[in-house]
């Protein structure tokens, strides 16, 4: 058999339907198998002409998988290893404390990433929601801890330059892949980790973070999380301030992640975003009605939006009723549904390895990605569809988001300065040399500034007399 057979859609997704109709007009693709027989001699000759491309049996899923993953980087959208560096090692990774070249417990180490033929990894820099916070605006150590997560993830990546390449652009991922490296990118898992602050988003971007999960398992200044709704709370969707968050993410060209948010938040964001969105680790709600999963109407919106849903491997999202019975086949079912409804151009892989204790039978760790690809092929996925799924979609979506940000900035759009309406500001600085008369007046009026600090008057000269009244200022 030939390359052509392997690449011929067995079931043509809607996304490709217009192309296939055009091809139907020329009666070229109606019966793929027959076509393969007719053209076999030519395609076989053609394949000999392409260096390194020999004809292969389309039923040889292992060989097809290896060939696809040799030419297209498999990029996983979500792995929580940096979180383990924090909770197990308190971020101390040197002097033999952490050695991912050895076989580790859990789901992730370098040898198994290589066995899994991985080409790229988004490392999640994650800190749990702070249960001690009664309100999301209460002081916490979340932003500090997030900075430390970014730091330790970067140090871990830098420690293995023969294996990993730190990347902040899609083109870097392609280049790293060509040189045999696993590109390594960063994503922050929740607005709580940035204190709900838009200025903090910009700084995270400058530090190299390329996606932000809008919420984790707690609401924040921007949006309602799926967990709130699962616990019986109202689904209030995106907040007014959340719209400003979307605006700044679009302007920065940063990937806005809708995994973990409530269904209304998904719909609200999709109705206003000016750029494609991502789901870094979510399943299909129609297959398993867990609120962490994506309902069909949202999948159709993602298709229109040009975004991507990266399929999660967490048991309880894959089968709520019997999480312990989940296998790799459940993941195939979820991916198939995501692709059916959103189109193969809008699916990806977002394992959540190292972030969950439970993984499906047959998909225990990062070494098992090829097994998943083989099963998808056995179900009828073409090589082209697999290329989209494993990495091409994510790189396209990322590049589109980046380009949209450049366009918005080229239009003269400035950094968003909005703050959450309930934000408290520290005003009690008794010795500030205020710039504005109105501040001095207010400091005196409200008693949070000492009047006698203002010993420089409006003439710019020192004045003996302590100023107390408006006229004196
Ligand atoms: Zn998560």
- Estimated radius of gyration: 26 Å
Which small-molecule species are bound to the chains here?
Answer: zinc ion
Number of helices: 18
Gross morphology is: globular
What name does CATH use for the topology of the largest domain? TIM Barrel
CATH architecture of the largest domain: Alpha-Beta Barrel
Unreliable stretches (pLDDT < 50, length at least 5) are 1-50, 466-473
Cofactor: Zn(2+)
Catalytic activity: an L-aminoacyl-L-amino acid + H2O = 2 an L-alpha-amino acid
Biased composition (Basic and acidic residues): 460-473
InterPro entries: Metal_Hydrolase, Pept_M19
Structure commentary:
The protein has 473 residues and is an alpha/beta fold. It has three domains: 3-58, no CATH class; 73-410, TIM Barrel; 428-473, no CATH class. Helix content is 42%, strand content 9%. The protein contains 18 helices and nine strands. The protein has helices spanning 3-7, 17-25, 32-49, 61-71, 81-89, 110-115, 142-158, 170-178, 198-206, 226-230, 240-252, 263-272, 296-305, 315-318, 328-342, 369-378, 383-410, 437-446, and strands spanning 75-79, 120-125, 164-166, 182-188, 209-213, 255-257, 278-282, 308-311, 347-349. Strands 1, 2, 3, 4, 5 and 6 form a six-stranded parallel beta sheet that branches. Strands 7-8-9 form a three-stranded parallel beta sheet. Strand 3 (164-166), helix 8 and strand 4 form a beta-alpha-beta unit. It is globular, with a radius of gyration of 26 Å. The N and C termini lie far apart (90 Å). Residues 189, 260, 281, 352, 355 line the site of zinc ion.
């Amino acid at each position: 058999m030939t390359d052509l057979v392997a690449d011929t859609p067995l079931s043509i997704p809607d996304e490709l339907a217009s192309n296939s109709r055009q091809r139907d007009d020329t009666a070229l693709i109606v019966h793929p198998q027959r076509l393969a027989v007719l053209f076999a001699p030519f395609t076989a000759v053609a394949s000999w002409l392409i260096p390194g491309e020999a004809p292969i049996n389309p039923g040889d899923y292992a060989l097809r998988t290896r060939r696809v993953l040799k030419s297209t980087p498999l990029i996983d959208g979500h792995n929580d290893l940096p979180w383990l560096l924090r909770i197990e090692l308190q971020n101390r990774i040197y002097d033999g404390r952490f050695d991912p070249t050895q076989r580790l417990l859990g789901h992730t180490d370098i040898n198994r990433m290589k066995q899994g033929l991985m080409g790229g990894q988004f490392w999640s820099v994650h800190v749990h929601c702070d249960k001690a916070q009664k309100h999301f605006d209460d002081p916490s150590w979340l932003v500090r801890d997030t900075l430390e997560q970014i730091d330790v993830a970067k140090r871990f990546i830098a420690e293995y330059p023969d294996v990993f390449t730190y990347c902040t652009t899609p083109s870097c991922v392609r280049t790293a892949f060509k040189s045999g490296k696993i590109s390594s990118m960063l994503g922050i898992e929740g607005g709580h980790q940035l204190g709900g602050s838009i200025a903090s988003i910009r700084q995270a971007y400058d530090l190299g973070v390329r996606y932000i999960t809008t919420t984790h398992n707690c609401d924040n200044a921007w949006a309602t999380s799926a967990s709130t709704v699962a616990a019986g709370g109202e689904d209030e969707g995106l907040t007014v301030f959340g719209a400003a968050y979307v605006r700044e993410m679009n302007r920065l060209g940063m990937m806005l992640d809708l995994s973990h948010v409530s269904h209304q938040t998904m719909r609200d964001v999709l109705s206003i975003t000016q750029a494609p969105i991502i789901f870094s680790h979510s399943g299909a709600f129609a297959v398993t009605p867990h609120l962490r999963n994506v309902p069909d109407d949202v999948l159709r919106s993602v298709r229109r939006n040009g975004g991507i849903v990266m399929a999660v491997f967490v048991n309880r999202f894959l089968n709520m009723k019997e999480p312990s019975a989940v296998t790799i086949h459940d993941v195939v079912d979820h991916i198939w549904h995501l692709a059916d409804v959103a189109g193969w151009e809008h699916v990806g892989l977002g394992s959540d390895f190292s972030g969950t204790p439970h993984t499906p039978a047959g998909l225990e760790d990062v070494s098992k990605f090829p097994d998943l690809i083989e099963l998808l092929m056995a179900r009828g996925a073409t090589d082209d569809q697999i290329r989209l799924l494993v990495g091409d979609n994510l790189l396209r979506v990322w590049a589109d988001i980046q380009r949209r940000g450049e366009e918005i900035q080229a239009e003269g759009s400035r950094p968003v300065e909005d703050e959450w309406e309930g934000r408290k500001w520290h005003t009690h600085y008794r010795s500030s040399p205020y710039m504005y008369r109105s501040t001095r007046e207010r400091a005196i009026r409200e008693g949070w500034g000492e009047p006698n600090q203002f010993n420089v008057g409006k003439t710019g000269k020192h004045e003996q007399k302590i100023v107390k009244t408006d006229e004196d200022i």
